[in-house]
Amino acid sequence: MDSQGAAEGIPRRGFLAAALAGVATVVLASCTAEPAPTPTPTRTPTPSPTPTPTPTPLPPGIPEPTAFRRTRWSADPYARGAFSFDQVGTTPELRETLATPVDDRIWFAGEACSTDAPGTVQGAFESGARAASEIMRVAQRGERIAIVGAGVAGLAAARALSRSSRDLEVVVVEARDRVGGRIHSVDDGAFERTIELGSPFVDRDGALDGLLDDAGVETTPVAPPTEARVAPTHEWVGVQSTGDEALAVASTWAHEAPYDTSLASALAQTGADALSTEPQADGVSPADWLEWSLRTSIVPATAAEPERLSAKRLDLGRIQRGRQLARTPLAGLVDELAASADIALSNVVRRIARVGDRVSLRFETGESLRVDRVVVTAPLGVLKTDTIEFEPRLPRAHQRAISVLGMGAVDLVWLRFDEAFWRSDAPADGDLPRDVLTVVGPVEAPPVVADPSDGAGDEASDDATGDAPDADEPAPALDRLVNAWIDVGLADDEPVLVGIVAGERAGRLEALSDDESLAAVLEDLRPFLPAESPVEPPPLEDSPQGEPPVH
């Protein structure tokens, strides 16, 4: 069924239902066939027992959380990442090109189309509003406009178009069974609060500021950290400017260079990364501070590693400024934007074709819908795949923009504990609380706990260290998985942390099982254990031969 237009007399909110109705009927009709012959019974093979997987043990000495939840945005077929970044070779014109309409029939909108605030809710909102403004300049009265995607960009476009005096018929089609895109507020009883599975940050700039107020969204400023935790000593040290100064040298050089290069290359070519690895009095070397700046600031803000990030397009001022953390659900913003929109959920668009002076949307169900114009707000990560086919193909300039712009990865890890052990040595009265927790310096090796099945308790194993490693076997590389921690429960005195995992670390996290990822991120909290209470391995208890001890 190809819907040509709203039937006369059907109300505005009813035309979409009519346009997309009949899916089940079509599917059921197509499944009607002659009865199949009864097959000859075959012997059912005896199934082999499936071995029960061994749970990944949690790291010793670290409190066990009462709740745990993580995201996997790069694995989400309707996201394929977190947000766009300026890959090597990116220019401002690429984002402008992506936002340029195709024959005044197809528009793109979203954070990737924003030149002022890419990668942000603000950028997505302004891009959607911009597309709507351009459509209103060319659309005729009564035209039907489709918007693909019910994230902030799509809802902003729908809101503006539906308020137009041209009496436009606006419909939003969304692949997911919810609205909001990467804004995903979830009421989780285990956390005793609403948690944000998308970005918990939002910028209160421009028109979005007033909209946040209307939606009742409260935010609190989060400033860059002034202290960092030294892993081996479990002590706080003041953040040194060494890393930021090296980044400034590389950035200045790259902006003046006649060609683009990666941030990692710019650091190397300027010699800004040639810093001493000798620890200073506080146990941290100058090289450690550069690594800290990259890991805790650059990578989370851009969702990309220095090897992929354009040095010429790097905006250190924007990256290093403070952010606004949502204290109340960002779903309020989504609800405000979606209040008057016609939205069809669970409708996956697979093909967008220009047919004469109209546009046809083909859905995964096989049905189609014809409209006069369309705003595509699918994330850049989705546009990089063949999820949506365009017919005819997009202009080369649009294809190049989609190809060159990078799609980054940022995931969140939410943890709730019985107590906020990381606040045990809070700053003195009058000092600002630490809402951002970061670690600097060498990675702390976890304590080794003997496995009783390896002979712990025997005379040969009195040191309780287990078998000695093979001298010819290299020690496993130690690395942190979490770029930075946000103490989101600080304002309400709740023991809740959010870990930000960005860049290639996000890919590593997504490859782990839930048990493995929990163990890995908990180990990253070891430096925040109280300094005055050294962690001792848990005592071994008697247990049957071959059985693990029970704690």
TrEMBL record:
GO terms assigned for molecular function: oxidoreductase activity
A Pfam cross-reference name: Amino_oxidase
Compositionally biased region (Acidic residues): 456-473
InterPro entries the record matches: Amino_oxidase, FAD/NAD-bd_sf, Flavin_monoamine_oxidase, TAT_signal
Residue ranges, annotated region (Disordered): 33-66, 444-475, 529-551
SUPFAM superfamilies from the UniProt entry: FAD-linked reductases, C-terminal domain, FAD/NAD(P)-binding domain
Pro residues: compositionally biased ranges: 36-63
Domain Amine oxidase: 60-136, 152-534
Coiled-coil regions, chain positions: none
Low complexity bias spans: 444-455
PANTHER family with a match to the protein in the record: FLAVIN MONOAMINE OXIDASE, LYSINE-SPECIFIC HISTONE DEMETHYLASE 2
Protein name per the record: Amine oxidase domain-containing protein
Species the sequence originates in: Agromyces protaetiae
